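Q: What would this chain look like folded?
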Amino acid sequence: MRVQQVMFPSGQVRCAADLYLPDGVDDRAPAPAVVMGHSVVMVKEALGPHAEHLARAGFVALAVDYRTIGSSEGQPRGQWLPQWQVDDLRAGVSYLRGRPEVDPERIGLWGHSTAAGVAIVAGVLDRRVRCVAGQNPSLLDAWAALEKSRGRNQLGAVRALLEQDFERRLQTGEGGTVPALASDDPKLAGYIAQSEELFPTFRNQITLASLEQVLLWAPVQLIHRLAPTPLLLVTGVDDPVHAVDEVLKAYDRAWEPKRLELLPVDEFGLSIEPGLGQSMGLAAEFFDQHLRKAPRFRPSPAPEEARARGLRPEYHMAAGAREAS
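A: My prediction, written as structure tokens:
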């Protein structure tokens, strides 16, 4: 396996990504590929174990830093803009289609947590995406999810803070920031501390201006539009962060072909072993079915070409009838 640090254009800036190339893959033997995105403002290095699982299964994997996050370009830093993230994953697809090691007709998407919704919307918009997998899907209806987890009073306080920041930006041109992941929960605080230790480019902050846009984010309203692109959702059965009822509701709205896998883990169980390996094993199996083994789409030829190539059996039948008479 080889790993390359690459940059590709998205919007007016460039996104950084880690490109995982399986052994034996080159321009003479191109492989199917997967563009991978993490949650909120988490950096591409946190996708390393997941990408390695796919690379060992023979897939090229592109782990992306969204714009203004990690090693990617863009100002101001720390903008959590889901629609931009959709465009960044789609730009990753464009980048992979230009790589000689990649089969351009066999590219899928994989997203963790909030990036599951990002991948779903990208797949809705972009039919170059052949299949979509989401691990620990979260904030598929951001307003409803935050209102449920935080309560109406706290969400009201957030709206008041956003109004104050809007006025500040209007008057000064500069806005404020808040922690991307609240650290009042000891378990989550430990996760944040480990991320800061392991990933030097990770910053646990987002702009308040971008949080406004997050409140309007609702992939659940579009998830049925993904069909007929295949969908896989994998989540834990006891996960207060990535609420399983939210996932089940979204899965119910999705159209076939779709697949749901519920694993006996909590909110961190799919980011550490053995749950990580189990989840990525399911993802590799899914991508194998829909990227490697699925037949390619073949558009029908024009009528005259179909006749010339003998693809219309009626002409053979008519010729046979004439000969018989």
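Residues 152-172 form the longest helix (21 residues).
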